[in-house]
Each structure stands twice: as structure tokens, then as C-alpha cells.
Specification:
The protein has 486 residues and is α/β, with parallel strands linked by helices. The protein is built from 12 helices and 18 strands. The protein has 3 domains: 56 residues; 55 residues, no CATH class; 284 residues, Leucine-rich repeat, LRR (right-handed beta-alpha superhelix) (Alpha-Beta Horseshoe). Strand 9, helix 9 and strand 10 form a beta-alpha-beta unit. Helix 1 packs parallel to helix 3, helix 2 crosses helix 3 and helix 5 packs across helix 6.
Length: 486
């Protein structure tokens, strides 16, 4: 069979995807016969094997695979967008779910995994935008009337970066609109969305990614099928008296991104049992405490990021300890000076699931690396702009056992940094920038064989030391990529 594929790697991969499901010699012989007919019936061997691979798909995967034909060849497709398209087109429904604890997104992930296992698609960890409808010129309402006059819209995406003339409000009352399941308004320039959105009772996804200061009406109690809600961001000067209540109609949410405690209310967090993706910016202790308590009960959560702003007081109610040890919190950004006592933080850090920790302007005086190094799952640590204002920093032996990326930037008083043997054994990316007092790179970098990239930003004296003729070059000579940013 490999010979019949012309020894072409892609054809062999596709063939393997077919054979993976065949358990007997008889089934293999049948594939052998079919592949001969498929290949020698056309000029291109790969086309023949691809057709055979498609015909071997189970019935429920065939429409999912065919829908991907709307994309360009070799185009990167965001998996989350693909899931929503499958769901919006009714290709995945609750009738397909065996385990009632699963969600439609769970099923979509399984479908994509099965397509990948059959070599029908390649899965990579990349991110890109997909815009379903591109429109330039003319008024937005004209576009909507013309498009709805001859079709029932189910998936509508409008990128306001194009030359679209938009009115202050857009009505959502026409019959064709009622069937919309996915509405994306990226870079939206409207001041507010209309209250007639409550008519979109079938809507599964509302995506305002990249939009700013757009007021969303309180209509979610009528939109009981809503699964994915991506809110606009709000800048400091545009909060006004706007409040969006997320207390009704959000029990089935699987995605809630860009929650902002200044203008969004979330009082029924205990009912959101299916939440898988959550990003929040928190400005007050009451909201922070409620969110931390809610996160602990979200058993299906996969992505959970909390950004704690400077107006929060992390010294009260052991709030910092709760944040560091919260079992379902994976990414934490802190921009509060009240975190300066982090070195004295107590508690069971082994419970922590934190993978990413970003500190900005925290003015920590005591060396925090002893605490950070105990976080068992930490992969990324970034210390920015005066997050540490001490002079000495030490990474103890056997600390940061999973850390892969470390950024030290804008630490003006840091003079000495030591890395003990056995610390950061998996570190691959290191960035040091604008630490003007740092005298040298640590000797401990010599034994970190996994280090792939070293970036020095500014700091001409340190650049000189790690150059091939410099005093510290022997410490980093094993690093494949060393870059200087001026």
C-alpha cells in the first residue's frame, strides 16, 4: 500500500488514518483493493488517498470536514472559531452527547481530535482571526437588509476596521436575524448595541473582541442558549454609570472573557457549572473575593485568567494567598503595590495551578523568588516595571522546576542575581531588560542546557559582557540564540 501511495509522506499519513480504524486482515485487504482503484483512477495519488480517507469518515464527521472547505488552502483556522461554526450550523447538537456532563464544545473538541488522528487536519498551537464575512463600503444597515432578504443568517462577522459606514444603532428585529447563532463585531465602533438583541433567542456566541467602550444591553435573560460571551474592554474615562448584569441567562455559559468589575455584575457565579474559559479584570476586593470563591467551584475550567488592578488591597483577608493557591486559577496578573509582602506569604503553595504570573509596579522590597519558585506548575514568570525594587535576587536550588520563560524588565535597583544549581532546569527563554544596575548574568545559567533564547534589552554594559569577547560569554555560550534590542 505504501508503494501504491508513491512513497509520498502525505498520502502515507492519510492512509494511516484510514487503517487506524481497521482491526482485521479482511478490512486491510479491502482497503488495499480500494486504494488501488482510488489511486490508479486519477492522476494524482494524494487525491485518491484523500478521497478514500473522506469516504472512511463516520457520517457525523463528513459535514464538519466539508465545512472547512470555505477556508483557503493552507490557511490557519482558529479551533475555537471552528467549534462555534460547527455548533452554529447544527452539526453538533445535544443529541450527539452521550455523557450529559459534556458540553457541545467538548464534542467539537472530540470531533477535531478524531479528524487530526485520521490525518485529515493538522493541529498547531497558533492563534489567528477568522472573519466569516468581509464587507467594504456602504452602510451597515444596507448590508444587513440585503443579506437577510434572501437568506437566514446563522453566522455573521463584521470587522469594523474595514470601510464600513455605521449608524449609532442597528436594529435586530427582522425575522432573518432571529436565526443568528454567532454574531461577531470585531473592532466595533458603535456606542451601544440595541435592546432588540433580546430577539436573538438562538444565539450561541456574541463576540466583541477588540472593541472598546461598547455598552451591551441587559437582555441575557432572554438569550438562554448563549454559550460564549466575549465582552468589549472599557477604558478608565468611559465607564460612566453603565452596568451590565450577568445574573440571569448566563448559567450555560462556557466562555466569559473580559469581565470588568467596574461595569459588569456577576452575582450567580455558583450556577455557572459549564464555564471553561474565563478572563476578568478586577478593581475591588468584594469582586475579587467573589471571583476567587467562584473559581474554586468551576470543575470544567480550562483557561482562567485574573488581572488584579492597583485599587485592590491584597493584604486584607489573606487575598494574595488565596490568589496564589486558588486551584483553578491558571494565569494571574497583579498591578497592586499591596503585594509587596509576597515574600511573607504562607499557605499550601503546592495546591496552586498557576502557570503564568505577571507582576507590574508592585514595588516588592524583599526577594520574591523563594515564594515564586515553590509554585509547582509555573511556566511563565514576568516581572515588569518596578515590580521588584530590591537589590539582590536569588533562585534557590530545586526551585522553578517547570519554568520555561522568565522576563526581568524595568527593575532599576537590581544589582545582583544568583541562580543556584538545580534551579530552573527547563528554562528555554530568558529576557533581561532595563535593569541598569545589574552587574552580570548569573553563573548558574552555565548549567541550564535547555536555554534556547537570551534577549538583552538596553543595558549596553551587560551586552558587552555577554558578547563573544566579553567576561560573561562562557556563561551563555551554549545558548543558540542571543539577541540584543537597543
Amino acid at each position: 500500500m505504501v508503494q501504491k501511495c508513491g512513497y509520498l509522506p502525505l498520502a502515507i499519513c492519510l492512509l494511516g488514518g484510514v487503517l487506524r480504524e481497521k482491526k482485521s486482515i479482511v478490512e486491510w485487504e479491502s482497503v488495499n483493493e480500494h486504494i488501488k482503484a482510488a489511486i490508479y483512477g486519477v492522476e494524482e495519488q494524494i487525491d485518491g488517498v484523500l478521497n478514500l480517507s473522506y469516504e472512511s469518515l463516520p457520517y457525523y464527521l463528513k459535514p464538519c470536514f466539508l465545512l472547512m472547505g470555505i477556508f483557503n488552502e493552507d490557511e490557519t483556522i482558529d479551533a475555537w472559531d471552528l467549534y462555534n461554526m460547527w455548533i452554529a450550523q447544527g452539526m453538533i447538537s445535544y443529541e450527539n452527547i452521550g455523557d450529559k456532563e459534556d458540553t457541545l464544545t467538548n464534542m467539537a473538541e472530540l470531533y477535531l481530535s478524531e479528524l487530526a488522528s485520521r490525518s485529515m487536519v493538522q493541529v498547531e498551537f497558533l492563534y489567528d482571526y477568522y472573519v466569516n464575512l468581509e464587507y467594504k463600503g456602504g452602510k451597515l444597515s444596507t448590508l444587513l437588509r440585503e443579506s437577510s432578504s434572501h437568506m437566514k443568517i446563522q453566522h455573521l462577522a463584521i470587522d469594523f476596521r474595514s470601510e464600513v459606514e455605521h449608524e449609532p444603532t442597528v436594529a435586530c428585529g427582522e425575522d432573518a436575524w432571529e436565526h443568528i447563532r454567532c454574531l461577531r463585531l470585531e473592532q466595533c465602533e458603535l456606542d451601544d448595541l440595541p435592546s432588540s438583541m433580546r430577539n436573538l433567542v438562538y444565539m450561541d456566541t456574541l463576540d466583541l473582541t477588540g472593541s472598546a467602550n461598547v455598552e451591551v444591553p441587559n437582555v441575557f435573560k432572554e438569550m438562554l442558549r448563549l454559550k460564549h460571551l466575549l465582552l468589549p474592554i472599557h477604558t478608565n474615562e468611559n465607564i460612566r454609570n453603565y452596568r451590565l448584569r450577568l445574573d440571569e441567562g448566563v448559567n450555560e455559559l462556557e466562555t466569559l472573557l473580559f469581565f470588568d468589575s467596574r461595569c459588569h455584575e456577576l452575582k450567580r457565579m455558583d450556577r455557572m457549572k459549564n464555564l471553561r474559559h474565563f478572563v476578568a479584570r478586577v478593581h475591588d476586593n468584594e469582586s475579587l473575593s467573589a471571583i476567587m470563591n467562584g473559581i474554586m467551584n468551576w470543575n470544567k475550567i480550562q483557561e482562567c485568567q485574573v488581572i488584579i488592578e492597583g485599587s485592590c488591597d491584597l493584604t486584607s483577608e489573606r487575598m494574595l494567598e488565596k490568589a496564589l493557591t486558588c486551584p483553578n486559577l491558571y494565569s494571574l496578573h497583579i498591578g497592586s503595590v499591596s503585594v509587596k509582602a509576597i515574600a511573607k506569604c504562607e499557605g499550601d503553595l503546592l495546591r496552586s495551578k498557576l502557570k503564568c504570573l505577571y507582576l507590574l509596579g508592585c514595588a516588592i522590597e524583599d526577594d520574591p523568588m523563594g515564594i515564586h519558585g515553590k509554585l509547582p506548575c509555573l511556566i511563565q514568570l514576568r516581572l515588569y516595571r518596578k515590580s521588584f525594587v530590591g537589590e539582590e535576587m536569588r533562585c534557590p536550588a530545586n526551585s522553578f522546576l517547570r519554568l520555561k520563560m522568565l522576563v526581568l524588565s524595568g527593575l532599576p535597583k537590581l544589582r545582583e542575581w544568583r541562580v543556584d544549581s538545580g534551579a530552573m532546569p527547563l528554562l528555554s527563554d530568558l529576557t533581561i531588560g532595563e535593569c541598569s544596575c545589574l552587574e552580570m548574568v548569573p553563573e548558574g545559567l552555565t548549567v541550564i542546557s535547555t536555554l534556547q533564547t537570551l534577549v538583552i534589552e538596553g543595558m549596553p554594559e551587560l551586552r558587552e559582557r555577554v558578547s563573544p569577547a566579553g567576561q560573561d560569554f562562557h556563561k551563555v555560550s551554549h545558548v543558540p540564540t542571543i539577541r540584543f534590542k537597543y
